[in-house]
Amino acid sequence: MVAEKDLEVTLDQVRANAAGPVAGVFGPDTITWQIDREAVIFLGAGRALLLQLAHPWVAAAIAEHSKTFADPIGRFHRTFDIVFAMVFGSLDRALLSSRQLHRATA
Predict the structure, then answer these.
(1) Who contacts 81 (Cβ-Cβ below 8 Å, separation ≥6)?
(2) Number of domains into which the chain is organized
(3) To 10 degrees, what angle do helices 56-65 and 40-54 make?
(4) Which residues 6+ apart lie within 8 Å of 84 measured at CB?
(5) 62-81 per-position pLDDT tens digit
(6) In terms of Cα–Cα distance, which of 22, 27, 4, 35 is closest to 101?
(7) Could you report the per-residue pLDDT of 16-35, keeping only the tens digit for each?
């Protein structure tokens, strides 16, 4: 588990190395933006999810601590929103999403 203090130290490092307040963490000239803007990423995400669910410990943890099985579409949308904000959002939005994700998993 990452302590909130450690998260903030890491986010300070991210802020110091970010592309800028509007461009966000990565910025439009990076390979991250070039790859993640492709529709094929969505296809890969589905396969990654299936591989994760194939492990019995992961499936058990999801069943006990998540609404994924009850609301798979909602889960997809929430995950997409967080990842999209961290990759393509402004710097402030990306850092906020990181904090929200950290709180959700704490």
Answers:
(1) 97
(2) 1
(3) 100
(4) none
(5) 888 777 778 878 877 888 88
(6) 4
(7) 999 999 999 999 999 988 88
The torsion angles phi and psi of 20, rounded to 5 degrees, stand at 155, 170
Best CA proximity match to 94, nearest among 6, 42, 27, 36: 27
Q: What is the full DSSP assignment across 79-92?
A: HHHHHHHHHHS-HH
Whole-prediction pTM:
0.76
pLDDT digit string, tens, across residues 37-48: 776 676 676 677
**How many whole angstroms separate alpha carbon 26 and alpha carbon 70?**
34
Structural domain for 24, as ranges:
4-105
> What is the rounded CA–CA span in Å between residue 76 and residue 96?
19
Distance between CA atoms of residues 23 and 21, nearest Å: 6
